[in-house]
UniProtKB/TrEMBL annotation:
It is found in: Nucleus; Chromosome; Chromosome, Centromere. GO terms for biological process: cell division; chromosome segregation; sister chromatid cohesion. It comes from the Eukaryota. This is Cohesin subunit SA. GO terms for molecular function: chromatin binding. Residues 272-306 form a coiled coil. Residues 315-400 form the SCD domain. Residues 62-71 have a biased composition (Pro residues). The lineage of its organism: Eukaryota, Metazoa, Chordata, Craniata, Vertebrata. Belongs to the SCC3 family. It comes from Amphiprion ocellaris (Clown anemonefish).
Length: 1073
């Protein structure tokens, strides 16, 4: 007898359960697995008349293994683990095809999904009743065919072989090359196969519940076969047989419940009849009731025996199977058993399987476990039986709210809500702390589930107490007070969570469960306008949440980052609700918005949020009634006052956006807005003009400079005048902030900005050459400066670093949008490596965008950037000290070309051609020749991105240039050279050399000694580092000269008539590769 353990085992054993290693692995502290007793063959059943004396068994009374053993032991199924007591050998020979429905008929009906399962099962039952051996053989072959096996159990096999031998024979005939079988084949014909197969098993058990289920032949034989198949190495056998066994078990559980109810009812009637006085008893009635009780006990015992066989022979082994689909099937059916028959199954011995599988590595298995637990926690009468399970696995459940599978995390949050609502102790505050932050999650379903949890935890109790009270007189007042309490709770939570830039996420999380509270604009504005409504630190969060709610109601779309992967299409009902919300928002805020702006006009953060409200109005409503026009005038007045009062960029941008909207010609009141803002601009222009002359003369003091800059910033924000561009450039030398304004204005008045509006073409303004130079100089003076030159001794404050990043981003935008030439990016690219920590992401994005604009020009710009650094190095000290730093930059830039070598082939060739040309460029007279040849070392960092054919061509370039010089120097006659299919990098023309001047060009650029220069050798080595197709060529001294052999002429060319050159003096170099 196997030693029984505690229901959930010791915590030490459970903690050893691990999901590492194989697909699903459990590690035990014990060094050896406990051996199970070898089951012997089942004895023949005793006569049914003795059934009343037999002891009833159930799965809960059977020894259940404690923590699951190592699944590696499951890979080699042992005949000792799975009982195969019942033989399939019939008493007489049968022929399957002579009578009744065939296995193929059943299989076709299952595949089609259109046949009535009751009809199919009835036809098979008719066949089984005529010959049970033939009927069972049909059912066996149907199961084999459902597994996807092409083998057939013949009459001879059926009569002479044991289960293990039959399964072994079928395994040999199984198609090992195919990984698909009916349960997992993704074809339309088998779309309903699983559902139909499950329905077939359910109908079969239900049809046999009163007769054949107790015939001691059909189901014992069938279960014996399914148990053997579930232990097979073939996945199709294991999956299909486990599914059928679990569905049969579910059918048996249903019947056991019915039999148990019938037994209790009959036993109660028997006790009542037996309690009567002797002369009042009906003896025949007592005998009938006692026979019925005995029969029920016998039936229940028979069902329990088969259930025990499935549970111990299939479930206990397959719930930890390697295939996650099999594990999920086991857990799903276990959940059904727990709810259907809690008396026998809802105990710690069965619940532990759910707890263990919460650690499964596969999301679908964990998801099925959580859903099963949800069904259990929904029933109040089950809570008492779940206490030990809850205390043991609560920690694991709470940790799963951060599951890597979002669907699992959503269901876990719903499970935690049930545990909070149904259990007496609920969840402690620190345990709820695992769930609260999820309202800010990017996954919308998870955030909504956390919002429901938050709503029910803090607000729902008070809300229900007030709304359901029958002693309230004014229900509307109650709703207002409830909403006010809810808003205070949300504001407090928002402040404590410290995610102050993610109010839209919090509103979206609560929108589904608390939409009516979040649409209570009256309560929100009453809080803001009342002096004693809120504390000062609560006003800002309320305004932010109110604006997020207004946007959510007006647009009916989730915030950025919570999109569901596809465009949200609103239904007609949702569109109607959206229109109603928009009208309610407009009608409520038109008279109150000027008051709110007046109260919070001095607070930049609050007023910038309030200025966004009209963007979600039905603005035409301003023209619908005359009394509303005064509110429009008040709004325009407040906007102008805010512009004159603030210099913060966020406030000015909000004003500019609102001004653009109100001045749109689509609204009838746009002329009123134009007049108001024209007067504002006139005042700002006059203010700036008063300081302009002093600024240009350089006599302005700091106060005048500040006043002029703030006026200019306000004008730039309102986006009207381009004449201030040049004035801004004159201020560039004394005001770094003017650089940001200038970049924005140049971008605003660029050609790309007016491309869609030809009428604005006259506003285009391109920067002059001097302004381009000043912009580039600003980068060196204010952004790319050495840390030791700063006053902070190498430590930049966060604000200063952000300011520099914004300035650099503004300059890069000018390059990307075509305001500056792409070659201007060299001033940015050359600092990629040195300032990678501070500006690496901005420069990397600029490099990527430049490749989309013009890949070849971008590559040439990269090369030009490196050439400039190399030239600066030679100019400064003519040494190689900075060469490693330049090579490091080249490595980083080379990685930006990506992994698609065919796409970057032309840009890389252009880069190498320019680099080689630069390396062999003539030096000025009086200086050392070939100073730039060391540039080939930098160029070698890009070689690994070349295709093999391009490596070969570029390698031949260096080799042939030197060999060609030696060849030309040894001949006095003119030479004609033809290079076929060879991109000569020293010229943009086709690679055909046919005149003596070209020979002079080569001779002057490719000295014969260049072959032995270290830089040339390094560059050639970089081109052949991954190529072993051509052996290296050795010179007399044994030194490596080149990685390529000298080409041999494949054919001789006959001299044309009139040629003075002989064949001997004609050199043909064929580089066809």
């Amino acid at each position: 007898m196997v030693r029984r353990s505690s229901p959930l085992d010791s915590p030490e054993e459970l903690d050893d359960f691990s999901d590492s290693g194989s697909d699903y692995e459990a590690t035990l502290k014990a060094s050896k697995r406990r051996k199970r007793p070898v089951p012997g063959p089942l004895l023949p059943k005793r006569p049914r008349r003795n059934a009343a004396r037999r002891v009833t068994s159930s799965p809960s009374n059977n020894p259940i293994p404690t923590p699951p053993p190592d699944p590696s032991l499951q890979q080699q199924p042992s005949s000792q683990e799975t009982p195969r007591q019942v033989s399939l050998r019939p008493g007489r020979s049968v022929d399957e095809g002579k009578q009744g429905i065939s296995a193929k008929d059943i299989y076709d009906a299952i595949c089609s999904g259109k046949s009535a399962m009751v009809t199919v099962v009835d036809e098979w039952l008719d066949s089984y009743k005529q010959s049970r051996e033939a009927g069972l053989l049909v059912l066996i072959n149907f199961i084999v065919q459902s597994c996807g096996c092409k083998g057939v159990v013949t009459q001879e096999m059926f009569g002479s072989m044991e289960n293990a031998e039959i399964i072994s024979s079928l395994t040999k005939e199984f198609d090992e090359d195919s990984v698909n079988y009916p349960l997992c084949t993704p074809v339309p014909q088998l779309k309903h196969f699983k559902a139909s197969l499950c329905e077939f098993a359910r109908v079969l058990v239900r049809s046999c519940q009163n007769s054949l289920i107790y015939d001691e032949y059909l189901f014992p034989s069938l279960l014996s076969l399914l148990t053997g198949l579930s232990d097979s190495q073939v996945r199709a056998f294991r999956h299909t047989s486990t599914l059928l066994a679990m569905k049969l078990m579910t059918g048996f559980v249903d019947i056991v419940v019915v039999v148990s109810v019938q037994l209790q009812t009959t036993q109660r009637r028997y006790d009542v009849e037996n309690s009567k006085r002797e002369h009042d008893r009906a003896s025949d009635r007592l005998e009938e009731l006692q026979a019925t009780v005995s029969e029920c006990i016998e039936n229940k015992e028979e069902l329990s025996s088969m259930m025990n066989s499935i549970f111990r022979g299939v479930f206990v082994h397959r719930y930890r199977d390697r295939l996650p689909e099999i594990r999920a099937v086991c857990i799903e059916e276990l959940g059904i058993w727990l709810k259907t028959d809690p008396e026998d199954f809802l105990n710690d011995g069965c619940l532990k399987y759910l707890g263990w599988n919460l650690h499964d590595k596969q999301g679908p298995v964990r998801l099925q476990c959580v859903r099963t637990l949800q069904g259990l926690y929904q029933e109040k009468e089950f809570i008492g039986r779940l206490e030990l399970f809850t205390s043991r696995f609560k920690e694991r459940i709470l940790s799963m709210v951060l599951d890597k599978d979002p669907d699992v995390a959503v269901e876990v949050v719903n499970l935690c809500l049930l545990m909070q609502q149904k259990t007496e102790e609920g969840l402690a505050e620190d345990e709820c702390g695992h769930i609260y932050p999820l309202v800010y999650a990017s996954h919308r379903a998870l955030a909504s589930a956390a919002g429901v949890f938050l709503y029910n935890k803090y607000a729902h109790i008070e809300h229900c107490q007030c709304c359901l009270s029958l002693f309230r007189v004014d229900n509307q007042e109650d709703n207002k007070s409830n909403n006010a309490a809810f808003l205070q709770v949300v504001i407090s939570f928002y402040i404590q969570s410290e995610f102050h830039e993610h109010g839209a996420y919090l509103v979206d999380s609560l929108w589904g469960v608390a939409g009516s509270e979040l649409r209570d604009w009256e309560t929100m504005t009453a809080f803001l306008l009342q002096d004693a409504g809120l504390m000062y630190e609560e006003e800002g969060p309320l305004i932010e949440l109110m604006m997020c709610a207004i946007k959510q109601a007006a647009q009916a779309t989730p915030p950025v980052g919570r999109t569901q992967g596809k465009k949200v299409i609103l239904s007609m009902k949702d569109k109607k609700i959206q229109e109603q919300d928009r009208r309610r928002i407009t009608a409520h805020f038109i008279p109150l918005l000027p008051q709110l702006l007046a109260k919070y006009s001095a607070d930049a953060g609050k007023v910038s949020l309030l200025l966004k409200a009209p963007l979600y109005f039905e603005l035409e409503m301003y023209s619908s009634a005359q009394w509303l026009e005064k509110h429009l005038d008040l709004l325009l007045s407040q906007i102008c006052g805010i512009v004159e009062k603030h210099t913060e960029l966020t406030v000015l941008e909000a004003c500019a956006h609102l001004v653009t909207t109100l001045c749109s010609e689509s609204y009838t009141f746009s002329s009123r807005a134009h007049v108001a803002f024209s007067q504002l601009l006139d005042g700002l222009t006059e203010c700036f003009s008063s300081y302009l002359s002093d600024l240009l003369q350089g006599t302005a003091d700091d106060d005048d400079t500040y006043s002029a800059a703030t006026a200019l910033k306000r004008i730039a924000a309102l986006m009207f005048f381009k004449k201030y561009l040049e004035a801004t450039s004159s201020c560039l030398s004394f005001r770094p902030q003017a650089f940001e304004v200038l970049c924005d204005l140049l971008l605003l008045y660029s050609e790309s900005s007016v491309r869609s509006k030809p009428a604005l073409q006259a506003l285009v303004h391109l920067p002059s050459d001097s302004l381009r130079s000043e912009l580039a100089a600003f980068l060196l003076d204010y952004i790319f400066i050495d840390a030791e030159d700063t006053e902070l001794e190498g430590i930049l404050t966060l604000n200063e670093k952000n300011r520099k990043r914004n300035q650099l981003a503004g300059y890069c935008k000018l390059i990307i949008y075509g305001v500056l030439d792409l070659t201007a990016a060299t001033d940015v690219f050359k600092h990629y490596s040195k300032y990678f920590k501070d500006f690496g992401d901005i420069i990397k994005e600029t490099v990527s965008k430049s490749k989309l604009i013009d890949p070849i020009l971008s590559a040439e710009t990269v090369c030009l950037c490196l050439q400039q650094l190399f030239s600066e190095m030679l100019t400064d000290n003519r040494s190689r000290e900075d060469l490693p730093e330049i090579r490091d930059l080249a490595k980083r830039l080379a990685m930006s070309f990506g992994i698609n070598l065919h796409r970057v082939r032309k840009p890389l060739l252009a880069l190498h051609m320019n680099g080689i040309c630069f390396a062999f460029r003539d030096s000025p007279e009086g200086e050392e020749q070939h100073l730039n040849v060391d540039f080939l070392e930098i160029l070698s960092e890009f070689s690994f991105k070349l295709l093999q054919q391009d490596r070969t061509q570029l390698g031949l370039l260096c080799y042939y240039s030197i060999k060609l010089y030696e060849l030309l120097s040894s001949h006095t006659l003119n030479c004609q050279i033809k290079v076929q299919r060879f991109p000569w990098c020293l010229s943009s023309s086709p690679a055909i050399l046919s005149s003596p001047p070209r020979a002079d060009f080569l001779k002057s650029r490719c000295p014969s000694a260049a072959l032995s220069w270290p830089s040339v050798r390094l560059y050639q080595h970089s081109l052949v580092a991954r190529s072993t197709s051509k052996p290296r060529e050795q010179e007399e001294g044994g030194d490596v000269v080149s990685s390529y052999r000298s080409p041999v002429a494949k054919r001789k060319r006959t001299a044309a008539t009139g040629d003075t050159l002989t064949t001997q003096n004609t050199v043909l170099i064929d580089c066809a590769l």
